[in-house]
Amino acid sequence: MAVIMKRIFWLLLLLFTSCEQEKVDLPNVEDCDHYYYEDCNTQEPFESGVRFDFSINRQTHFVVFEVYKGTVDEGSLFFTDTAFDASVTYIMPVNEYYSAIATYQVDGKTIKVIDGGNLVKQGKTVCDSTCWGVNELVLDLSIRQ
Predict the structure, then answer these.
(1) What is the CATH number of the domain that holds 36?
(2) Sorting pLDDT into bands at 50, 70 and 90, what band is 107?
């Protein structure tokens, strides 16, 4: 029973603290005769950067974190790493839901922080081409005080 309650707690925490951004800025064009495509990426993206933010400071010099495809509870472990900087970026496949859990050791206590979100590519037909974009995904694994 305690394990189920713990999983429900983490799932609710993930749902209510997720900071995902799914808006992709694509060009809005009405005049195809004079459009130069400088704001149009015509190369379809298959991967993009995902930024992970951490609480690295004088007390916490590093943090171990795990990244999952899917949710932390039901997804598959994608990779594990250790962050020594407050922000790190990894290139990851698009059109996936990613979640992560960071485990901090602070003053003899273990603190776990979870976040997740979708990394989504979108295409839009502009004149005779398709313009592609990917949302900015930032997983905030910092300790909120």
Answers:
(1) 2.60.40
(2) confident
